[in-house]
Amino acid sequence: MHSSQPDPRGSVPWSARLRKLFSPELPFIVLILVGAGLTVWSLMAIRDQTVPPVVIQPLPSLAARSSETSELTATTSVIASEAAWIDAVMAQSRERVAPTPTTGEKFGTLEIPALKKTLPIIEGTGDAELKKGVGHFLGSVMPGQPDNCVLSGHRDTVFTGLGELRKGDLFVMTTTAGEFTYKISRTRIVDQDDRTVIVPTDHAVLTVTTCYPFNYVGSAPDRFILTADLVQVR
Known about the structure:
The protein is an alpha+beta fold. The protein is 30% helix and 27% strand.
């Protein structure tokens, strides 16, 4: 005979079962499980990533380091030699001071080997002086002396061809104090009112100026500037 006992589940209504299944705590439980799953997945992904190896550069060999040291020592020696040579030239130039000339007086010559020219140097840069030769700017130092020695001349007389000179070409100035050789280190074009030409310098410099453009008719608006450093005293 079949049992006549009722099914225990039949005593619980379906609505109650659903309320129990979808209790208020269920969404929080689902979020916790999803968060835990994402955390585990992230950790596994990080673990599986390939970390690039750290490359340690080998130290230079003893021979390479010795070579670098030798090169540095040689460079330092060259710099020291050049500094000593400059000091020697400066010392010689200080010992040779020509008497201060009067305005309009010829006190030396300027030789430009590249142009095959030898020109008289006249004290002063007024019209009268520039008609006689190359003018020495009043107030600038005498040839060979530490600081800036400034010469000026007309582009269409004494300084024709001056624009052909290049870096490395020479100026040789001769006075009663000796012979002073300057090597061109820079050329530039400036406005006629530029105030950076006649300025003090920390070593013996020759600045040569003339009007520019060279073929300009009338009073030229610019100046052609050559800067040269003292390299020899005789």
